[in-house]
Design a protein that fits this description.
Elements (H helix, E strand, L loop, with lengths): L8 E15 L3 E8 L3 E7 L18 E8 L5 E11 L8 H17 L7 H16 L4 H15 L24 E5 L4 E2 L2 H9 L5 E4 H11 L11 H19 L18
Parallel strand pairs: 3-5
Antiparallel strand pairs: 1-2, 1-4, 2-3, 4-5, 6-7, 6-8
Helix pairs in contact: 1-2, 1-3, 2-3, 3-6
């Protein structure tokens, strides 16, 4: 008796493009983060033909409305229809906005798990792209805000008010002082745990009080703390985020591989 295979299931969802690559001469494969179905890899046949119904649809930074056939026993699904839900034309025309948007997209791509619904990640990325499109904040400030929200959403936010090793409450920070910090352990360390970690050969750095205070305000949702920061202060904050993410993601997206001197207090 012949058993028929399961029919493809039709899916429709809003989505953001994470990555795309050519497939053959005229088709492409797009990896998208959908709002309700998580990360999905889609085959858009003939997408590079000017007469294709997918032509100029699968572009970065736009919010898309997609319909695809979910086929059993395959990771590559067939895209049936694609429309633009929200076109963002400003981001590609501004270099700093483009770099920031690309850095955010690549970070989401690393975190998104195929087939696992992650509406919080979708909302985080879409709202950040919209703020960049509207030009309401400096791109570097938007990236700092995004990175901290990402860390919090992924349960990776560093310990700031207590020791990441023993859990004891940490004393208040005082201007001009430096405090032990170990990204691999998870954040701030008390004096005893810092000495023990160094004795065990674990990397322990120091962070200045002003950076601790800024991180604590951002952890409390006080995003207005970013307004008015100098470019140097924002670079210091972004460097902190990048190096902390390096440890926990074990890689750094290409758009974040900026050559810059390593601060003496680097975690």
């Amino acid at each position: 008796m012949r058993v028929r295979g399961k029919k493809p299931v039709q899916r429709q969802d809003r989505a953001l493009l994470l990555r795309r690559q050519a497939y053959g001469e005229t088709s492409l494969v797009g990896s998208v983060l959908s709002e309700r179905h998580g990360r999905v890899d889609l085959l858009a046949r003939g997408a590079y033909r000017p007469t294709s119904r997918f032509y100029a649809v699968l572009d970065p930074f736009h919010t898309l409305e997609l319909r695809w056939s979910e086929r059993p026993r395959t990771e590559l699904q067939l895209l049936d229809r694609g429309d633009l839900d929200r076109r963002r034309k400003r981001i590609p025309t501004d270099l700093e906005s483009y770099r920031t948007a690309q850095a955010m997209v690549e970070l989401i791509e690393l975190a998104a798990v195929p087939g696992q619904p992650e509406p919080e990640l979708f909302q985080l990325l879409e709202e950040a792209l919209e703020r960049l499109e509207l030009g309401r904040t400096r791109p570097d400030l938007e990236r700092a805000r995004f990175d901290f929200a990402f860390l919090e959403g992924q349960g990776l936010f560093p310990a700031l008010d207590h020791c990441a090793s023993c859990g004891r409450d940490a004393p208040p920070v005082f201007p001009g002082e430096r405090y032990a910090f170990a990204a691999r352990i998870g954040g701030r360390l008390c004096r005893e745990c810092a000495l023990r970690a160094r004795a065990e050969g674990l990397p322990v750095g120091t962070l200045p009080a002003h950076l601790f205070a800024l991180c604590q305000r951002l952890a409390a949702g006080q995003h207005e703390a970013l307004e008015g920061l100098s470019q140097g202060a924002v670079e210091e904050l972004l460097d902190f985020c990048d190096r902390f993410l390096d440890v926990h993601l074990e890689t750094r997206p290409k758009s974040r591989r900026k050559s810059r001197p390593r601060p003496a207090h680097s975690p």
